[in-house]
UniProtKB/TrEMBL annotation:
It comes from Herbihabitans rhizosphaerae. This is Uncharacterized protein.
Length: 331
């Protein structure tokens, strides 16, 4: 039977964006974020409530990139000006600027002591862009910082704050890579070959039209000289950008990222790092794996891959229901 005694409490908690949920394992927060949508299905004997949650990125994608006192986006005083700083430092400044908006406080831990630099940015309020978009754009330039919002239990588990992890440019863990063995702690290893965005010459549309169009450009003959056909592409996701350095940076990053096919791997690993018999192996508990971490997989007798030890970086972590988690990996 459904728990009718507490249904009023459940109803009161289903305020989207106001309340958050967290998945906690051994006093470690694995994921946490605000509820965004909920779907209840009245099924006899086993009603189901499915809740979709976001993370701090979700909130920053709903917060306009404007100065704290902005009232008119056409005024220069409404713009957000950052720097001089490193690209990683600019990312931290962007997050701080987002928190400075009215009623903008969030439970975030912003890093200090990031490298210095000479980069600067002026984000015009009249573009009506979101802080999340600006952070994404910053991460997409050449040597742009990787970012992650990692939940941490605080106050003996009473509260959760998110550590803002900012790479300079890459995220990584201290110490040795996590080690998994194919067939024991790593039960399956899928491979995805994606050449859908391959191009060796990249044009990036900036602000303007016709002969006044600003654009960035980057090209490489490495692959065409080795026998690939010439492939060209246009990136139209930065049409409000007016700075030539930024446009060229986007083009360079696209060329370096998509010059060759992207090989990603889906590694299904044991939740607690034990082997199928429940014995400890030295592989990590999933609670100790974070985005950007390095993973070494000893691969033997895989139906496609050669017998070799491979080193990957963790791009994402996914799990559904009670199934073992899957690590999205980049070689």
């Amino acid at each position: 039977m459904p728990d009718l005694e507490h249904k009023d409490d459940m109803w009161a908690l289903l305020d989207m964006w106001r309340f958050s949920l967290a998945l906690v394992e051994d006093r470690t927060a694995l994921v946490a974020g605000p509820m965004i949508s909920a779907d209840f299905r009245d099924r006899e004997g086993a009603p189901v409530l499915a809740i979709e949650c976001g993370d701090p990125w979700s909130i920053l994608m709903r917060r306009l990139c404007m100065a704290p006192t902005a009232t008119n986006p056409r005024e220069a005083a409404s713009n957000v000006q950052l720097g001089p700083n490193s690209l990683a430092g600019l990312a931290a400044e962007l997050v701080e600027a987002a928190l400075d908006r009215p009623a903008g406080d969030l439970p975030l831990i912003i890093p200090t002591g990031l490298p210095a630099g000479s980069h600067g940015r002026v984000y015009n309020a009249f573009d009506l862009a979101f802080f999340g978009e600006r952070l994404t754009e910053l991460s997409q330039v050449s040597d742009g910082p990787e970012l992650d919002f990692h939940p941490l239990l605080q106050d003996e588990g009473a509260t959760i704050r998110h550590e803002v992890r900012i790479g300079a440019p890459a995220l990584f863990q201290a110490g040795e890579p996590h080690v998994y063995d194919y067939g024991t702690t790593l039960s399956s290893l899928d491979v995805d070959f994606d050449g859908s965005r391959n191009a060796h010459s990249w044009w990036v549309r900036g602000d303007g039209m016709s002969v006044e169009l600003l654009y960035g450009y980057a090209s490489s003959d490495t692959y065409t000289n080795a026998g690939w056909p010439r492939l060209e592409s246009v990136d139209s996701s930065h049409t409000s950008t007016r700075e030539q350095e930024l446009l060229d940076g986007y083009a360079t990053a696209n060329r370096d990222t998509y010059g060759d096919s992207i090989y990603t791997y889906g590694a299904t690993v044991r939740w607690d790092g034990t082997d199928p018999s429940g014995r400890q192996t030295g592989a990590p508990h999933i609670a100790n794996v974070r985005l950007g971490d390095h993973v070494m997989a000893s691969v033997q007798d895989h139906p496609l891959l050669p017998d070799v030890d491979l080193v990957f970086r963790v791009l994402g972590i996914q799990a559904t229901g009670q199934s073992d988690p899957t690590l999205e990996l980049l070689n």
